[in-house]
Amino acid sequence: MTDIPFGMYIHIPFCLKKCGYCDFYSVTDFSLQEKYISALCKHLESFSREKPSLYPQTVYIGGGTPTAVDALLLNRLLKHISSCFDISRVMEYTVETNPATIDAQKLEVLASNHVNRLSIGMQSSSDSELSALSRIHTYSDFLYGYSLSRKYIDNINVDIMAGIPGQTSDSLDRTVKNILSLKPEHISVYLLRIERETPFYRMRTELLLPDDDTCADMYLSVSSALEKSGYVHYEISNFALPGNEAIHNTSYWKRKPYVGFGPSAHSFICKTRYSYKKNIYEYINAVLSGVMPPLDEYSVLTEKDAVNEEIMLSLRLSEGLDLPYFKEKTGYDILEENRQDITEWISAGLASMNNGVFRLTDRGFAVSNYIISGLLL
Ligand code: SF4
User: 22 C-alpha vs ligand 1 centroid, how far in Å?
Assistant: First the structure.
């Protein structure tokens, strides 16, 4: 049987403190960490035994805060991944981190276990904005963590955020200048979204949030500053120095197979999408008793779902959608069905068309939901 590559995602659902805006699944009870790592190890082992033809091409350990976990447990998990899977073919091995949880011992654990990329959540260089987000780190914690990380890992992503309560265009410019002075290989720029079931959602009327037009202007000004400094804007929220585009995340946008482990982790394999329930207790109990963890979502995609996903995900990427090829593959003639809208978007500078490839411009990315929803089946 031919070997099939997949992206491996491992969720570490522990944070020292929950940030007010975050809806990623995590708990603050670290007394569970040892049992959780044991459960993860068991899950990884049974998966590798049951699917021997699948091999990881990328590994991404996210969360939560993977580096908040005890260094010995982190070491145990990483060693276990290498013993269960052939990681010689792993092209990119990323761990997410929060600046306040990086230290030399943990970086040593990561570097000695094949981790070759770090993703650091900086968010802002303004301490008052970090505190408005209820982050546990300050800008100087970030600077310390970043320079320490540089001694161990060559490829670093830094996340920054626009639309933070109290943020102004000037303070965002300062964050961008500060990050550019460090020249990380990759920068992700996220717009703060107020998600349901977060403290920010409950306080939404009291938060001093920049309005939608200001957020769109912020996004365009960050995009332009990063592009001028040599970063390739290859995906709506992602910028990389040439050759440093994220391989793992790109596989999501290109609809390649990925398999997630841990509560809330998502998978996409054999036209099926599923995710595990956001409950660490149920996850641990199920895996340690030898049964599959409970599912939250499970769906087998129809042809129509697959067509719509491909449109949505391709248009997030600057490489866009090759319309003649897409028509040949799916039978959906996007150009014929949407000629007037497409012509208007191109004349408004929101999109471009070259040799049949339809792409959104930076201004188009800023209103991508509107454009993409107009093209779906
Ligand atoms: S540290 Fe990251 S994952 Fe944890 S609550 Fe804050 S934003 Fe969410």
Answer: 6
What is the per-residue DSSP string for 84-114? HS-GGG-SEEEEEE-GGG--HHHHHHHHHTT
Entry pTM = 0.97
Which atom from ligand 1 is nearest to the alpha carbon of 135?
6
- Sign, Cα dihedral of 230, 232, 238, 240: negative
Using the mean position of ligand 1's atoms as its centre, give its distance from the Cα of residue 65 in Å: 7
Distance from Cα 195 to the centre of ligand 1, integer Å:
13
Nearest CA to ligand 1 atom 6: 19
Protein residue whose Cα sits closest to atom 5 of ligand 1: 18
pLDDT digits (tens, 9 = 90+) for 323-371: 999 999 999 999 999 999 999 999 999 999 999 999 999 999 999 999 9
Which pLDDT tens digit goes with each residue over 260-279? 999 999 999 999 999 999 99
Which tokens go with 24? Answer: 């990623």
Please state the atom number of ligand 1 nearest to the C-alpha of residue 64: 3
The pairing of beta strand 258-261 with beta strand 238-240:
unpaired
User: What range does the domain containing 324 cover?
Assistant: 303-375
Examine the domain organization and report whether 249 and 312 are in the same domain: no
What CATH number is given to the structural domain containing 72? 3.80.30.20
